[in-house]
Amino acid sequence: MAGARQNLWTRSSGSEKIFKACFAIYIMKYIGLCAGLFLMVCLIGVVEAAPNATVEVEADIYAKPTIPDVISIEVPNHVYLGLVNESDCGNKIKVYMNNTGNVNISVTPVLINQSADNIFQNLYFQTRQSGNLSAVKRIGSYSFLMEKPSTEGGKESDYFYMWLDLTDYMTDIKSNMIGKKDNLLFVALPR
Amino acid sequence: MKILSVILIIILMSFSVHAIKISVEPAHINLSGRIGEKLCQEVKVSSDEKTIFLADDKWSLNNEKGNFNGYDLTSGEIGLATEYRKTFSSGDKFNFCVGASEVGKYYGIVLFKTSAGNAVIGSLVKIEVGENKERDLTILSGMIMISLALCLILGLMIYYRRRS
Predict the structure, then answer these.
(1) What is the strand order of the sheet B19-25 is part of?
(2) Rounded mean pLDDT of A122-127?
(3) Chain B within 8 Å of A123 (Cβ-Cβ)?
(4) Count H helices, E strands: chain A?
(5) Between B60 and A54, where is the model more confident?
(6) Is the pLDDT of residue B134 over 90?
(7) Residue A185 to residue B65, Cβ atoms within 8 A
(8) In this predicted structure, what is the pLDDT of residue B84?
(9) CATH topology classification for B21-131
(10) Is-cis flag, bond preceding B26, omega within 30?
(11) What average pLDDT does range A82-111 have in this prediction?
(12) What number of C-beta contacts closer than 8 Å exist between A and B?
């Protein structure tokens, strides 16, 4: 019985050795395969990265839209200067204008009828009633500066004063001139 | 009577509230080229009202930077030839073209007046005209050719004199 057992054990031990050997070979093959794969991956990585050692980056970039400079103004079609007596000075009228473009502008009032005896040659202008911009200027020497709107597509509103001063008008006014009109142009230019 | 005067003044004041809006694009026209070259820029004029625009141009030899009274010359007076339509409707686009006969810097304005209303709007124009290199090369090559021909004639004359 004991011999049979011993024999069985010996037999069992032999098969175990074979099993162990097979297992060891299997493990080694597995490790070898893994190592091979690892090496391949590393090599591919090295081959891929080696030429420039750079990484390709990608992004969608939009160019800033180019906005053309535009000069645009809103000016009143008609300005009523009120009642003015001969050898007297009329009331100061506030004239509003809007800069609706995207550039700073200068606005110059110009009379179409430039003859010296034109009563509207006695038009006077003033940007503000006090302070640095309070200089009084006659038509022909006055320009009104306007800033561009602070926001794109916005509107910059500003005003100046205009009046008819007949104190130095020498021509004798023989009869009332009710509704006396002349064409005054407001010339707007970028500056 | 007083009431009538007040109503009249209110009616007249209401006219002053109405405004016309006009625009020109671009506000600055900067062109550069050579003598005799036709320089062009597309310009667009528009208004919020149905109106006809009348165009005109004025020039100066100095940079007046938008000082309207400083532009007191015509294009012909400073050797410029302009070419563009003189009347437009609102929203029209057109080509403003100019050519110079002399080298230099030219400063001008292109003005657009509405047929109705009292607004005039303008673009500032700056033109730089340089030497015409092609013409200079033509002149130079012509001079070389003439010199070579003269040398050849002289050489032939000397040769025939010696022979005779």
Answers:
(1) A137-138, A123-126, A156-164, A93-99, A71-76, B19-25, B39-47, B93-100, B80-83
(2) 94
(3) no
(4) 1, 8
(5) B60
(6) no
(7) no
(8) 94
(9) Immunoglobulin-like (2.60.40)
(10) yes
(11) 91
(12) 109
